[in-house]
Amino acid sequence: MSDEDSREILSADETLKNSETGVSRREMIKLTAGAVMAAPLVGLGPGTAAPQAKAPLFFTREEFALVDELTESIIPTDDHSPGARAAQVAAYIDQRLAESLEAEPKELWRAGLKLIDSLSQEMHGHPFMQATPAERVAVLTRIAQNETKPQKPEEVFFKELKARTVRGYYTSKIGIHTELEYKGNTYLKEFAGEEVPPASRQ
Predict the structure, then answer these.
(1) Which of 143, 8, 150, 148 is nearest to 72 (CA)?
(2) pTM tops 0.90
(3) How is the chain split into domains, by residue range?
(4) For labeling, which of 27, 115, 161, 184 is most exposed (least CB within 10 Å)?
């Protein structure tokens, strides 16, 4: 995707504001990062996942490209930090599904990706990867509209897609250190506290 296309996706992303709070979608996603960070981590995260240039472990190459685009559309690169693609979130999802012993999540992803293309075809006359940045945002907006209470299969898939994207991103080095600016356990030379008036110390 060209830089111009990426900027168009970012511009479209910023227009998707919560009507009550005025918070951008990326900011709303960031609010969930605390719960993600607190959750126990099992296995490898994106920072140690196989590079995306290698053959996918679970997805076909076409499916992997679609997952990579979907995750980047949910958490795109912006002026503050790189997005899901740079954090190798698609590789993380691919690896986790390949490691899964359960058939249900694998079936959910296979069917969900087909639903994305079917919906894009219905809305715009072509698959998701052939859609314009604005058309891609329109597809994601439609399947995200009932995120709290998903009913349709594509809405259920979006909830899974977003959850995996958020977890993958905010457990990566980019998500933790660049986006959240986590410094780890660092020594403080001084603690800048507020001076308490003498009368208040009694």
Answers:
(1) 8
(2) no
(3) 3-182
(4) 184
